[in-house]
Amino acid sequence: MDIGTRRLRLRPVAPHDAPLLHGLDADPVVMEFVTGGEATAPAMITDWVIPRSQAQFRECGTGLWVAFDRRTRLFTGWVWLRAPRHSAVPELELSYRLRRESWHRGLATEAASALISVAFTETGTERIFASTHPDNMRSQRVMQKLGMRLAAEHLRREQFDDGFTGHDVEYEICRADWLRTRRPAAVAPSGPRHRARGPGTVEMTA
Ligand SMILES: CC(C)(COP(=O)(O)OP(=O)(O)OC[C@H]1O[C@@H](n2cnc3c(N)ncnc32)[C@H](O)[C@@H]1OP(=O)(O)O)[C@@H](O)C(=O)NCCC(=O)NCCS
């Protein structure tokens, strides 16, 4: 299934996307709050990230969605919406990472908003949450624009050599809150092909 937003096309990641993901993670500014600036090893992408996402799509219908500019067809980045491995409740975890050239245009919010809309209308998900480093204000601003609220602050013991800590803040949005702040028209009929009209049009193509 593909998902279209006003400016982006999202599709499940495939093995041939590995060089795009690797290029994205090779930018130390992009990785500042993810790893402290370290690039991801290519083997991690080919042997773990992509197969894991493919398994998530098979099991839950969602995983790592790669995003392309609808006009230029260039790779923009990705949004990952996945079922956490050890969760006993119907919830999904959200994360996102865009090429630096694509920042500050509202694209992360646009892509994540479309996936949240599909998750709440097409699946039984009750809660979507996202975590980031407490200093990652860009990411937290995206969460706030998505209607998420601060739910928890996790303090971790890890302290990396460069001073980067494993602390993070967790934001969440629950189905009831999402429905309350969306017009009823945003709830799309289920089916392989439909267009949901509401805040941010979402197209789905089987
Ligand atoms: C986080 C990220 C996805 C945001 O992408 P984006 O497309 O630029 O996000 P948007 O344009 O939708 O929104 C960004 C918001 O942050 C705001 N912002 C940007 N820099 C900021 C800063 N230093 N402090 C506070 N807010 C900031 C922008 O003004 C915008 O809010 P606004 O629309 O109210 O003005 C992108 O910066 C990225 O890929 N970062 C690297 C990876 C990462 O950190 N991922 C998150 C980890 S979960």
UniProtKB/TrEMBL annotation:
Q: Enumerate the residue ranges of region (Disordered).
A: 187-206
| Entries under InterPro entries matching the protein | Acyl_CoA_acyltransferase, GNAT_dom, N-acetyltransferase
Which key words tag this protein in UniProt?
Transferase
> Which PROSITE patterns is this protein grouped with?
GNAT (PS51186)
* The organism's place on the tree of life at top rank: Bacteria
GO molecular function term, any single one: acyltransferase activity, transferring groups other than amino-acyl groups
| Pfam family name, one | Acetyltransf_3
Sequence ranges assigned to domain N-acetyltransferase in this UniProt record: 8-184
Q: What is the official name of this protein in its record? A: Putative acetyltransferase
Specify the species: Gordonia sihwensis NBRC 108236
